[in-house]
Every structure is written in structure tokens, then in C-alpha cells.
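Notes on consecutive records. When two proteins share a document, each keeps its own sequence and its own C-alpha cell line. Never mix them. Below: protein one.
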Amino acid sequence: MKIDVVISADYIMSDKLKDKTVVVIDMLRATSVIVTAFINGCKDVIAVTSIEEAKAIGESMDNDVILGGERNALKIEGFNCSNSPLEYTKDLIKDKTVIMTTSNGTRAIKGSTNASDILIGAMINAKAVAKELIKLNRDVIIVNAGTAGQFSMDDFICGGYITDCLCDTLGEDKVELSDIAYTALYLYRNNKDINEFLKSAKHYKRMIELGYNDDLVYCTKKDITDIVPRYNKDRIVI
């Protein structure tokens, strides 16, 4: 199995994704939100790139819809939820469709549609993602959403953890890493306390400034669920 990493949504090359399995990671916080929404029983998630499209889809559907997302890490005016996974509670979203737009994560998802499969990955479901990748048995491209088009430490170390899970299960002789994938793996193996490591990250500091401390604790937890959402025909499902 070959593993490569794309450092942000701005660096996705659609032609390189063909016949590959993509894992999209935006652990702070879009993909953590999506996984959590399914933990708490949502029906499906529709990921879009613009606020206008999210609102239009919401207006075209029935009342079983939740609008969620952010711009510049802040809740969008008129939406039900921000980009905090802790807001997507069972009481609010069970059996509902979540329509979601974020600055980076949903753009990375929509930019990866040329892949054979798109899995939604985060720290909270990393081992389960690795197991699913082994079942699919294709070469893997880990797409980091990044922050404002740039490299983001949080997504990178999460990809390193998923790569570590693959190496541990398959054996390192069965995994062929690109230079950047090897770097992500090395980074994770030398910084397994994710929360502590990320305190130096720009995006982490932004979350602290905005008071999202509880989100950071939650999103840096490892393997709290076996749920692996996947993109399928314009919707994310399990």
C-alpha cells in the first residue's frame, strides 16, 4: 500500500486521486464534527463550499435539517450550529440531515471527489479509518484540509497517527511511504501527546483565543468511536 499526504485543500491535484482512497482530515474541527454527528445519530451530512448553497439546500428540504459550520472559526449567522463538535448533540441532530460548510474541511472534501472512495478521518476515529483502508486495499492519499490554504500541524499529526496504525497492522514492509507521509509518521511517533504538541500550532492558539478549550480536548482524543463516515453521491453517510 502506497501512502501520500496532501498538505492542504489548496494543493489537491484531482488527477492524482484517481483509483485511490482519500482520507480527508480537518481535525480542528470539521471532520471531528462530522464523525460526532454520526455518533449522535444524524441521518447524513451534506458538505458544501458556500454559505449560500447551504442555505439554499436547507430551504429546499423539510424541517429535519441542521445548518452547521463556520467562517474564520466563528458561527455563521442564521445557522443552527457552529463548527464545535460538542454542539452536535443527540437531542438536536438524531435522524436529521446536517448541511455543513466550513472554511477548509468541506472544501477539501469537495475537492477530492475524483477518488475511488473518500473517508472522513480525525483523531477520534483514526484506528477505525486505518482498518477501513486495509479493507479497501488501495493506495491512500491523506488530504489535510489545512488552514487558509496553508499547512496545519494538527491535520498533519493526525495523518501521521493513521499512518502509524496502518504500519502497525500491515507491517512496515507492506507500506510504501512518500517522503511527506514518512515525515508525518515520524512526527507522530515522537509526539504522541497530541494536545501538548499542538499547543505550538497557530490554529490551536486561535481556538484558545476564541474559548474553544473543550473542543481542543475532545478533538485530540484518540479512537473514541469505530464510525467511519464516507462521501457517497454528494452525501456523507455511514
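Protein two starts on the next line and is unrelated to protein one.
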Amino acid sequence: MFDPEIAAAYSARGTVSPETFARVMDDYRTRSERAVRDLPGARGVAYDEHSDEVLDVWGIADAPRPVFLVIHGGYWRSLSRLDTAFMARTLADHGIATVAVDYGLAPATSLPEMVRQVRAAVAWVHRDGPAHGLDRNRIVVCGSSAGAHLAATTMIGGWQADLGLPDRAVHAGLLISGLYDLRPLIHAEANEWLFLTEQSAADLSPALAPLPDDPAPAVIAMAEHEADGFRRQSRDFHRHWARGSAGPLLTVPGRNHFDVFVDLADRDTELSSAVHRLFALTAPTHTPK
């Protein structure tokens, strides 16, 4: 049974008009197509031997480039990597490659399988990324909404060794408008396609996982105009992660749950500045002789 109060708190669509939602969804695809036009890269690269999922690599060059691995939102049931490359040209101008990841969507794909897939995408960057001009030692993971949840599952511990990865498989994270404790969704509309139980919701919640021994730096961000549940969870997860790794909680003024993500297409926004600060933290240090 849905709880009307919980359902309202986790209704991102309820915070914008249908016209605004449609406009932003169109903006994702239009801006992404424009950003990657004539940009060096590789489309539709298979990254996971256990599924048909693919990723795109944009902004590559002769020398290995730091990696912005970006995971789309869509409440785990819509959108794709093709809607999630609008930042690629701006980042390429700063010497950063963009890896936009597809994953299976609900209800055909279970949430545990989505988590497995995005972790496999991180493993692909470590294993095959250097052959595509990627620096596997400088990976910043990013996601918006459902993508922020999936990105956070690559930052917690307990899965890396099975894929032959170091404990800190990603080196920093930008998590935008995400959900990190999935238990409330049992009582919201999203459970019509996620099929969560109390146990599975807890198991899939980054906020309930133990902090890694050496948590990667993270920026937790949200829009000014978020539904209450998203706003609350951003604050709670920031407090949780900050116990092991200091980083800011950003509230982007004038933005809603959907259009805040597009700020990454503009080099002069607060979110873009946060990306560059995170990459600066991943830069190798040299001790003077």
C-alpha cells in the first residue's frame, strides 16, 4: 500500500509542470547530440559480458585523460546514455573524457542487476579504459537522481575485490539529487517498477552501508526546488559520508530536480566548478627531490 505523504515526498515529477518536464527531457537529448557532434570518441562500446549494455566515450586524445563517468537518472526506468553527454564538450575543452553509461531499466531489469552493471562499467574503465585513452587512476563518478544512487553504489565498499579492483575504484564523486536510503520507496509509486522489500531496499541503500576505510571525496548536490524526500536524503547522506571524507553539500539556487543536471553543460556553474575541484583532488602529487 502506498502512503500518500511518502509518495508526495518522493515525487520529483510533482515539483514541476508537465511542460517543464517535457522541455528539460528534450534539452537533455538536444544538448547531448550537440555536445558530441564531431567530438573524438567511441560509441556503443560493450562493457559487460553478462548483458547487452554499452557505454560511449567522448573527448579522448593521444594522452590518457581523466574520466568523468556519468550515470543517467530517470527513476531507474527511463532515459539513456544518449541523454547524458551534454557535458562532454565542456569537459573535453578542459582535458577530461566523458564516459556515458547505459544500464538496464526497470521493470525488465532488477535494481540489483543495475547496480552490478554500473560497477561493471567502472571495471571496464580500469580494464579497457587505457586502450581508449582513459586514465583509470583519475575516475570521478557522477549521477543524477536514480543515477546518483547508482553512482553512490560504486563508492561504497564490499564489491571491488570480486572484480579485481582496488578498494577505491572511483576516486571522487558528484552525486546530484539522489536517493540513498531506498526503504521509503516501498511505500511510494516507484515500487510499482522496483519491487522492493524491506530487506532488498536496505541491501541496496548506500546510506546504510558501512563507510569504506578510505572514502573517496564527494560533493553532494541538490536543486533548490526538490521534493522533500530528495532534499532530506541529500542532507542525511552528506552527514553520513562526511564522517569519513569531508566535502560540501551544495544547494543550487533556482534549479529543479531535472534541470539542475544540465548545469554541467556550462563551464561557469557551481556544479561544473565542483567537478573541476574533484578532479584536482585526483591529480597525482609529486614530492620534490
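For the record: The radius of gyration is 18 Å.
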